[in-house]
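Progress report, Aim 2. The chain analyzed during this reporting quarter is listed below.
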Amino acid sequence: MSKIGFDNQKYLETQSTRIRERIGQFGGKLYLEFGGKLFDDYHASRVLPGFAPDSKVRMLQQLRDDVEIVIAICAGDIEKNKVRGDLGIPYEEDVLRLIDEFRGMDLYVGSVVVTQYSGQSAANAFLKRLEALGVRSFRHYPIDGYPHNVDLIVSEEGYGRNDYIETSRPLVVVTAPGPGSGKMAACLSQLYHENKRGRLAGYAKFETFPVWNLPIDHPVNLAYEAATADLSDVNMIDPFHLAAYGETTVNYNRDVEVFPILRTIFESILGRCPYQSPTDMGVNMVGNCIVDDGVCREASHLEILRRYYAALTGRLRGTVDREVVYKLELLMKRAGVTPAVFPAVAAALELEERTGAPAGALVLSDGRVITGKTSDLLGTSAALLLNALKALGGIDQELDLIATQVIEPICRLKTQSLGNKNPRLHSDEVLIALCVSALTNPIAGLAQRQLPKLKGCGAHFTVVLSDVDEKLYRRLGMHVSYEAKYERQRLYYK
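Predicted structure tokens for the chain:
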């Protein structure tokens, strides 16, 4: 059983209560800017063991009858065909995916707002597509001098030009496919229009990280810096909160830098600013739901190390700047993180040195380290997977789960019929072979039944994994890292 450091049920209860309190603070209407991922927040689940990847959307389900969702997308991102890195799909496709996901969870999606709209042809095409699909859409326009020209922003030529997004529920959650989509501006524009109509409404911000009531150098907060190293985000003490309350809290640089401007905008719209600090604007209760600080520290150390290895690989591929690697090296020093925090690293490297071939290792939930090496028939990841299933099922490591007579025809098919140069089985192929073997071999069936126990385990490899192997491991709920080195020296890899 994996160690738990976070009380997910407490989070669902306290977070929903906190948001209800904030709605009440503004007379029953709140625009909530939702940062980060609503779905599949695997970063949070890795650094806060016990946090469910869908916790935030499950929390919203507890407020189902009061929630209306507005999705913001920047017209410039549509024009540039910006793609979500984790899913590999354009932002406009992700908007449609998000609508389907929300509706599937019985959450009401009120509309889509296209921000920074100036007649872009791709944005017009997307708006027509939304209309054809029966999705309400609105347009928000660029404002010269934003966000500093407050007099223009808070005027009929600024926010006043924007469409008023018609909403009907007390809590309006404004989310987006990615950063820079204009969520905050959409919320503030709505405050302007609500105020024009004589209606009281408020604004709040939901960000999971950094955790405001953990120390700035806490590994959970440092892991957030590691995750955003390419964005130049840095954690910092909130000086406004410290000055107002004498309390040290943590925020990140962009929110701190923009707060004086936000305060002026609030004063221009509402006549006063309801908040004394960026921390005040937040409603995040994550820090109150950590039940084992040591577990979360350990998990965060591992996450920082994984981010470092990912950056090294990105550098190898030419997708990550050298400065990002330097920043992560400094973060590792601040956190006291070395490869030694993850025993699989040393085990994999030692096996590679001993065999002269790529190797891998993983750490089971009980702390056992399992290794796997490349063979004539199996790739490293496939061999490691089988060895791990043997260990979990109490099966002799020397026992073949899949007969050679089963593997060899698959290898021949790959090379002779499908034109592959590498005959070795990938992880997905070996699992299919294992399922076939289980029809006649009870031991193979026993091994197959161990697959759910791999969830949450971490693995490290001495070479960059293929896409198919990495995706398979991640689908099993495992955390993967590898050395920035290819098995074969080529110019093109996939």
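The chain has 20 helices and twelve strands. The longest strand covers residues 67-74. These observations will guide the mutagenesis work planned for the next reporting period.
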